[in-house]
Design brief:
- By secondary structure, this protein is of the alpha/beta class.
- It has a single domain, classed as Rossmann fold.
- Helix content is 43%, strand content 15%.
- The chain contains eight helices and seven strands.
- Strands 3-2-1-4-5-6-7 form a seven-stranded parallel beta sheet, sandwiched between helices.
- Helix 2 links the parallel strand 2 and strand 3.
- Helix 1 runs parallel beside helix 2, helix 1 packs across helix 8 and helix 4 packs parallel to helix 5.
- The relative contact order is 0.15.
Length: 247
């Protein structure tokens, strides 16, 4: 009998797993019995995270904007762990810029990582997940895909695109036994929030009914649920992990 929270039958790829949310996703999933292939462009940090998680985890360097790299990553997951049942598209970039400030390089970077990356990932992972008998894809979207986000034009555009891709993939992949869901975090205590200079002062906290930022663990619990058998009738949903910020 499978216990609540048991992920022992799960083999997952988690992108952007060298730090922040992705590292916590991998940690919690391994703790619950999953095997996880962590990927990131931050090789040293990724290797350290995977080593700390033990034999149920491995790390491979991975640029999600490279379609050929995705083919190799999916093959490595199947070769090392025997199958692939879940994909968590977490890798992302965020550069502060308004519409007039957004140059071609900034625009292209956001679309390459935040939109094309999950596209390539879903396209390559879906056949492997189907071969395994079905499973789940979780796309980490953003609160910036729920409203007009000032100062983050390219980031917001790419996350709105990912929101649409998630819904379309949910409809298309359901007959193949693959569930596709989106998680929309609010403000999370991660290096990305600090790097882009999003304020986390009392004024910001006042916008969050629960009165605090999310932790990576808050989001990781939602990810672990959506890849688990307990969510086997959920697809195409938009799960907000925001403390009520967008209620």
């Amino acid at each position: 009998m499978i216990e609540v929270g048991d992920l022992s039958a799960t083999v997952a790829i988690v992108t952007g797993a060298a730090r922040g949310q992705g590292a916590e996703f991998a940690r919690l999933m391994c703790e619950r019995g999953a095997a996880v292939l962590l990927t990131d462009v931050l090789e040293e940090e990724g290797e350290e995270v995977a080593a700390a998680l033990g034999e149920r985890a491995a790390f491979v360097p991975h640029d999600v904007s490279d379609p050929a790299a995705w083919t190799a990553v999916v093959a490595q997951a199947e070769e090392r762990f025997g199958k692939l049942t879940a994909l968590v598209n977490n890798a992302g970039v965020n550069r502060r810029a308004t519409l007039p400030e957004t140059d071609e390089e900034t625009w292209a970077l956001h679309l390459a990582v935040n939109q094309s990356g999950p596209f390539y990932g879903m396209r390559e992972a879906a056949p492997a997940i189907e071969r395994a008998g079905g499973g789940a894809i979780v796309n980490i979207c953003s609160g910036s895909a729920l409203y007009g986000s000032h100062n983050f034009f390219a980031y917001s555009a790419s996350k709105w695109a990912l929101r649409g891709m998630t819904r379309a993939a949910a409809v298309e992949l359901a007959p193949r036994g693959i569930r596709v869901n989106g998680i929309f975090p609010g403000l999370v205590e991660t290096p990305m929030v600090e790097e882009v200079g999003i304020p986390t002062d009392a004024t910001t906290l006042a916008r969050i009914p629960l009165g605090r930022l999310a932790t990576p663990l808050d989001v990781a619990r939602a990810v672990a649920f959506l890849v688990s058998p307990e969510a086997d009738y959920l697809t195409g949903i938009e799960l907000l992990v925001d403390g009520g910020m967008f209620a």
